[in-house]
Amino acid sequence: MASKAAIRNGATATVEKTYEGLTRQQLIDIYRLMFLSRRIDDREILLKRQQKIFFQISGAGHEAMLVAAGMQLKAGYDWFYPYYRDRSLCLAVGMKPVEMLYQAVGAADDPNSGGRQMPSHWGHKNLNIVTQSSPTGTQFLQAVGCAEAGRYFQRHPDAANKAHGDYRQFKEVTFHGDEVVYVSCGDGTTSEGEFWEALNTAANKKLPLLFVVEDNEYAISVPVEVNTAGGNISKLVSSFPNFHFEELDGTDPLASYAGFKRAIDYIRAGKGPAFVHGHVIRPYSHSLSDDEKLYRPESERTGEAQRDPITRFRAFLIQEGILDEHSAEQLEKAVETEVQEAADHALRAAFPALNTFDHFVYSPDLDPKSEAFSTRPHWEFENESGHKAGAQKTMADLINSTLRDEMKRDPRIVMFGEDVADCSREEYLSAKQVKGKGGVFKLTSGLQCDFGGDRVFNSPLAEANIVGRAVGMATRGLKPVVEIQFFDYIWPAMHQLRNELPLIRWRSNGNFSCPAVVRVAIGGYLTGGSIYHSQSGESIFTHTPGMRVVFPSNALDAAGLLRTAIRCDDPVMFLEHKRLYRETYGRAPYPGPDYMVPFGKAKIVKEGSDLTVVTYGATVPRSLQAAQKIERDHNVSVELIDLRTLSPYDWETIATSVKKTSRVLVVHEDMLSWGYGAEIAARIADELFFDLDAPVRRVAAKDTFVAYQPVLEDVILPQSDDILKAMLELSKV
Ligand SMILES: Cc1ncc(C[n+]2csc(CCOP(=O)(O)OP(=O)(O)O)c2C)c(N)n1
Ligand SMILES: [Mg+2]
Q1: Cβ of residue 269 lying under 6 Å from some atom of ligand 1
Q2: Handedness of CA 461, 463, 464, 467 (dihedral sign)
Q3: Residue 4 above 60 pLDDT?
Q4: Set 533, 543, 577, 668: catalytic member
Q5: Ligand 1 midpoint to CA 133 (Å)
């Protein structure tokens, strides 16, 4: 163990060991926490063997560096994005052993997740330990967003104020100005792309982030040299600017303490992020489901055992006269008793009530389906307020105006994405050398000019970066309204969109939430859009609980639904059809700064009595055209329903209409098989079978991608004629 000699009082020097500035009592406390952590792991292993818990993954071998980190960070002040090996860190910042064991047994009182997540998936509201998931590496970009939010509130303190009438009523914001955001992972996880994206942004923005890599040289069975070119992550990251770097023996609490102190001092001073790479061991295999003897020879395992931080630090304390054998044993006995009592307590704890399974899928505080989100356009108040309906505007115009008015109203809104800013090199704007871009479709045009580069800015060309940071910001209380340039390129963000954004509230049992808005330009009918600028795929996201999915077909709905999306307390995917952005169909005057349309309320575009068409997005105008034609030429009366929001969707309106017409056609632009219409058709067949006079029909794209050549594009995507043909067939059954 390292210990530092310090010489006091000049010439007649007495040599006193200062142990990196730690008192003897602090050294004993460090040992106690390390030992406690190991004993909780041991107890969980026993409980797993007794089948009283269902999974175990240990922090064994990582204790020293994590206690050293945890004791220098501030609970409920700094923010934490730890991973499953970080038991000692959590203990050091104040999580109680019984709270850990509650999660292991899946107790209702588990503060991490209320029995929803596996053990060692840390989360604790009061301690600012943000709910963690199982995917390796998704925590990094969220930590970046969390750090950015702290910075933002420091610069815009008024934005932290409570406000009523939207999500802010339920989102407490705290910030201090010098808080650190801790984020950690293992050596293997450094291979994930999001790790690198996070380093990139943290360096670029000099964010107050503490990156920690716990290098036990294995990712399950894969050794570090396979994951990391050259075998040493410190070497690879060393050229990121603005960072402070530490590479240390993570089994040595004193060396770790000193390294973390330098790193944390650097961050708190506002100089930028720090990177601490600790070399540790993994004595208990990857998890209880893994047997490392299958891939590590005895010689390697014994060598590692000799580096065990617990036995070595114990020996060190005895050697230094800080503990003797007897006091060490007493301390250990007290820890054993504490763990025993915590386990007994956890084993008696109540399980979650069965009817709570769906609690916190969505916000329990603010329901975007409610009347509170139903307001009239301001031209309806014409007589009272003198407002006049203005000129007819496109969907693109109204989205832009809505974003602008919401930004005026809510200082917590930030916008970013690829090309979203007017101009990143702001001097060009201020010198009036350029006009600015504001999005490839110009939807955010002028917003940076109006609200500044702090609130509207470009992201790197990395979709996970956009959504991951938004998750972290929203968790901390900001309202990110981010843009994915083309739906076709949403996939790099899939982890964040499927495993993080919509899950944070549910998996933390309501302790955390991230009501961000992700605007996505979607869809085809572009004449030449081809494979990679024409995709739909909304059903992939409606198949994800926790996510609200909105798909307007006209300018007025886009304005009203976007406002609801921004003000509500749930994550929203807001799908904007590129073909509809500037279409003549569905233009409207701007409905004013408070116009909202609630989610889950379809619009009956046209009433009818013979046949119901259920659709949304760009197939609304195409279906309307077909409906008008069949009525004119064949006297068939079609009721046309525009769903407007896909999750939630308005079953009541569908059912009422189908009961009236007894014939139904579901139309959508995305491919037929496994598409959104499959669910609607199945539910109609299931619940309304006896109301039907004909089978439920669907019209959708061919089961392929969209081709470039317009004649092929036409044949692949559903056209008005296809809809008309299906209507005719259905009306004759
Ligand atoms: C995205 C993702 N891929 C795979 C896994 C399965 N998995 C869980 S832990 C792990 C190894 C992680 O190794 P490392 O980052 O070195 O951390 P360690 O467990 O060694 O501390 C793998 C492959 C996962 N959880 N998430
Ligand atoms: Mg590892």
Answers
A1: no
A2: positive
A3: no
A4: 533
A5: 11
Cβ of 228 below 6 Å from ligand 1 = no
Shortest-distance atom of ligand 1 to CA 135: 26
Tell me the C-alpha distance between 615 and 634, whole Å. 22
Name the pairing type of β-strands 209-215 and 181-186.
Answer: parallel
SS3 549: strand
CA angle at 351 for the pair 128 and 510, rounded to the nearest 5°:
35
- The reported pTM is 0.96
Q: What is the pLDDT of residue 382?
A: 66
**74 class by beta-carbon count within 10 Å (0-12 exposed, 13-18 middle, 19+ buried):** middle
136 lines ligand 1 (CB under 6 A): yes
479-484 and 413-417: which strand pairing?
parallel
Ligand 1 pocket member 134 (CB < 6 A) = yes
Q: 286 an active-site residue?
A: no
Distance of alpha carbon 337 from alpha carbon 329, whole angstroms: 12
What's the sign of the alpha-carbon dihedral 377, 551, 402, 584? negative
The pLDDT assigned to 387 comes to 66
Alpha carbon 585 to chain centroid, angstroms: 35
> What distance in Å separates the CA atoms of residue 88 and residue 97, rounded to the nearest whole number?
10
* Ligand 1, atom 17: closest residue by C-alpha: 186
DSSP tag of 705:
P
What DSSP string describes 29-60?
HHHHHHHHHHHHHHHHHHHHHTTSSS-----T
The structure tokens 């396979």 sit at 226
Candidate from 220, 284, 288, 500 with most ligand 1 atoms within 8 A of CB, to mutate: 220
- Is 139 close to ligand 1, i.e. is its CB under 6 Å away? no
Percent of the chain with pLDDT over 90: 95
Question: What is the distance in A from the centroid of ligand 1 to the CA of 135?
Answer: 7
> Which atom of ligand 1 is nearest to 134's Cα?
25
Closest ligand to C-alpha of residue 87 is 1
Judge contact between 727 and 712, C-beta under 8 A. Answer: no
DSSP structure string for 593-662:
TT----TT--EEEE--SSEEEEE-TTHHHHHHHHHHHHHHHH---EEEEE-SEEES--HHHHHHHHHHHS
